[in-house]
Specification:
The protein is built from no helices and seven strands. It is an all-beta fold. Strands 2, 3, 6 and 7 form a four-stranded antiparallel beta sheet that branches.
Length: 89
């Protein structure tokens, strides 16, 4: 099976989610892709969009996947974070 994660994003503000999902057990789950899609058919400067990750289960088990939404140059805590617990059967 696969897991698809879509998160809102606006890289024009300097913020972005980490491109590589932080997978606790890389033998159980691996990232197949990561892409940004702008909102609408015509790109508008300053408009946000969606970042999407596709993850694939390699074997049965449970692991955690984490993302952080931050400015790469800023120290401290990210503006947002997300942790998912993924169970593959």
């Amino acid at each position: 099976g696969q897991v698809v994660v879509d998160l809102g994003s606006n890289p024009t503000t300097g913020y972005a989610w980490n491109a590589q999902a932080l997978i606790a057990d890389g033998t159980l789950l691996r990232q197949l892709s990561h892409a940004f899609t702008g909102a609408g058919k015509v790109p508008i400067p300053g408009a946000g969009g969606t970042e999407q990750w596709v993850l694939k289960a390699e074997k049965a088990g449970t692991t955690e996947v984490r993302w952080a939404y931050a400015r790469s140059w800023a120290a401290g805590e990210p503006a947002w974070s997300l942790t998912l617990k993924v169970t593959a059967q």
